[in-house]
Amino acid sequence: MMNVILIDDEPLARSIVAEYLRDFAELTVVQECNDGFEGVKAIAQHKPDLIFLDIQMPKINGFEMLELIEQPPAVIFTTAFDEYAIKAFEAHAIDYLLKPFSKDRFAKAVQKWLANHQTSGAKPATNALINEEVRQPEERNRIVVKEGSNIRIIPVHEIVYLEAYDDYVKIFTAKEMLLKKKTMSFYEQSLDTDQFVRVHRSYILAVSQITRIEPLEKDTHLALLKNGAKIPLSKTGYVKLKTVLGL
Amino acid sequence: MQLNVSAKRIFMVGSAWWILLVLFETYALRTTFGFEWQVALADAANFNLLVATAGYIMFNSMKFYQASPKTMIYLLIWSIALASLCAVLHRYLMASYFFHDNVPYQEYLAGSHVIRGLFAWLMIGLIGMQSSIWFYLQEQRASEKREQETLKFSREAELATLRQQLQPHFLFNSLNSISALAGSKPEQARLMIQQLSDFLRGTIKKDDQQFVTLDEELKHLQLYLEIEKVRFGHRLKTEIVRDEETAGLTLPSLLLQPVVENAIKFGLYDTVGEIVIRIDAKAADKQLMITVENPFDPETSRPRQGTGFGLNSVQRRLYLLYARQDLLSTKMTGPLFQTEIKIPQPA
Lengths: 247, 347
Hints:
In chain A, strands 2-1-3-4-5 form a five-stranded parallel sheet, sandwiched between helices. In chain A, strands 10-9-8-12-11 form a five-stranded antiparallel sheet. A three-stranded antiparallel sheet of chain A has the order 13-14-15. The relative contact order of chain A is 0.09. Chain A contains eight helices and 15 strands. Chain A is elongated and about 70 Å long. In chain A, β13 and β14 (220-225) form a beta hairpin. Helices cover 32% and strands 33% of the residues of chain A. Chain B is α+β, with helices and mostly antiparallel strands. Helices cover 67% and strands 14% of the residues of chain B. Chain B has a five-stranded mixed sheet. In chain B, β4 and β5 form a beta hairpin. In chain B, α3 (69-97) crosses α5 (113-165), α5 (113-165) runs antiparallel to α10 and α6 packs across α8. The two termini of chain B are 33 Å apart. The chains are: A alpha/beta, B alpha+beta. The A-B interface holds A 9-13, 15-16, 19, 34-35, 37, 56-59, 80-82, 98-101, 141-142, 153, 155, 157 and B 168-169, 171-173, 175-181, 183-184, 230-235, 268-272, 297, 299-302.
């Protein structure tokens, strides 16, 4: 017996998945979730083998939800037309279902997963998918972070700077520091380059937070931020920053 | 820009004409009356300068009159007054400041008084008429250009609204809901197919130029809201409040559609839990005032500058229809986002 969770903000969209799943006796729907928050909790609680996941959902989208889960289960995406998602899927899909989908198409996706699951018994390549540089437009404007059992949504305009920290990135806002398991190069690419500059191997700065730039040693500089932090600028980082500032 | 270029050209042509007139008159005075050339030139220059000034005044005053029979009367009065002034001034100036002792010239001056006035009247009247026609044509051309622009934009807008309304998300998700209902509740599936069809027909058929009554617009919105409620019924509540005085008031068709769509999208995707979309229509000082309200999360989302939330196309459309920028405004009070639209009513 294998457990399945359905995550979609439209009840009818879940009901059709549940209906089609009745043909697969070995799969049981243990919970249905209305949004990513419920999804994170349900996955932690039930440790499902497979989830059906919508992309566009309230507050956090399907990709962002997956980012919050340590070991994501196998995912079959169910979504309406979405050019971003489709590109991502084409490159890395386990499988995805475009709404509305037929019973046959649905069965094929599940059988594909079952076959995969039985031979390897291992995790699918979901991580590769969500690390892709194919982001939903709203993800440029916010970062979703898990803090204990809370899920926090940080609007990017609140970010002061980012600092590399082993496998994590420390996200500093005016009020606090949050940890997120991501790479610096990920943020360097996903954040707006007019507002955020990678000034150092270990630092990304919000340009608007800089109050002063001082020379430090030969070739290196120091940026003073509104919150009092002092961030070293590498030689190339300083050049990049000057271009963005139009100097 | 165009007006400036034409105005410049008119000035050049006018100046050339003026010089020619002066020369011709000098020549005529010399040959007909045998005056010395200084006398002839001074007389011609002075008189024509007066006429040119009067013509310039005429030209400028015509700017403010729309071409009509009434304008013709103004033109007549103005030209007679200016012509008399020219004649009197010319005689006074020439008699008191120049050539006092030139008796034949002074006699000629006194004798030509009336004919001079008539000549001036002819000239000034002609200039006035020309100016009036010229301004009329300018005005015509400008309004033609505006009309063309409005037409062009409304086509674009029609396409844009169509594209928006046939938003892939909306359409495919609705079809998915129908698919789900077809298994469990076929009657409801049928109802939704019919609602979706009516809605799509409404969007395709409606001419963007057309004005519709508030009733019609709300009926169309209602279809849209019904479909969204099938999808999000558990979360979406709508309230439509309208004053009785709004009966019969009109608005550009499909104007509210993108506004409500935005409100729903933001309401649903920016918050979890139940949301209320409120549409409120009032009549105030010959205007139809419509407010659309949706909840949002001020913590995590920041509407972009200006009107924000993708309302620019609505604002642009209002501007082209009414030449006003102040008809759409937005405001945030706590967790509520309000879009307010004023629609001037035909007098």
